[in-house]
Specification:
heterodimer, A: 112 residues, mainly beta, 5-stranded mixed beta sheet, 4-stranded antiparallel beta sheet, 46% strand, globular, B: 119 residues, 7-stranded mixed beta sheet, 0% helix
Chain lengths: 112, 119
């Protein structure tokens, strides 16, 4: 089945710093790729997605590009805010089961 | 749009009792819903895939007789933890995949989760 490797957290940054959270995956075929975010005390929310190679998903200043050659989907943001503090999950969509496989999650802490 | 609710949001029960958790898609139909378990500071573990009108598909290692899933309509799936024990204490999360709408390709919408504590 699919598997996901995310960089371990917590990642602690100062406000307005540049963010990168690495994500690599193994999968059969070419799955759609998702980043979900879980804010403290809340459920998971879709942050962005990409459905095919070289697609760039973007939302709320976050971006991630589907890199087929490196099987990666790294999340980036140019200037983080305190409100971005949350846990971020990378998740490819298993094309067979149509189910998401979640990475371990990366906790981001942004300090003022 | 695309809101998923779970009820209850938290429950405390005695060991040996059964607990039912409901997952509802409020403004869309979902042929498929998923049930996950999340341990503290860990990722989500898929327990089972719930299909409307048919039996659920359980992941390896998940006891289907302990975690009963019923998906009776296009907007409701239930998870019943039977004869709960302290080791079943966890955060249970459901998600629903819209039955239609190309803009939702592959996407799942998550409920807020239910925290179960078994004493």
């Amino acid at each position: 089945g699919d598997s996901v490797t995310q960089m371990e957290g917590p990642v602690t940054l100062s406000e307005e710093a540049f963010l990168t959270i690495n994500c690599t995956y193994t999968a059969t075929g070419y799955p759609s790729l998702f980043w979900y975010v879980q804010y403290p005390g809340e459920g998971l929310q879709l942050l962005l997605k990409a459905t095919k190679a070289d697609d760039k998903g973007s939302n709320k200043g976050f971006e991630a590009t589907y890199r087929k050659e490196t099987t990666s989907f790294h999340l980036e943001k140019g200037s983080v805010q305190v409100s971005d503090s949350a846990v971020y999950f990378c998740a490819p969509l298993d094309t067979g089961r149509r189910a998401l496989t979640f990475g371990s999650g990366t906790r981001l802490q942004v300090q003022p | 749009g695309a809101v998923v609710s779970q009820h209850p949001s938290w429950v405390i029960c005695k060991s040996g009792t059964s607990v039912k958790i409901e997952c509802r898609s409020l403004d869309f139909q979902a042929t498929t819903m998923f049930w996950y378990r999340q341990f503290p500071k860990q990722s989500l573990m898929l327990m089972a895939t719930s299909n409307e009108g048919s039996k659920a598909t359980y992941e390896q290692g998940v006891e289907k007789d302990k975690f009963l899933i019923n998906h009776a309509s296009l907007t409701l799936s239930t998870l019943t933890v039977t004869s709960a024990h302290p080791e079943d204490s966890s955060f249970y999360i459901c998600s629903a995949r819209p039955s239609s709408g190309l803009q939702y390709f592959g996407e799942q919408f998550f409920g807020p989760g239910t925290r179960l504590t078994v004493l």
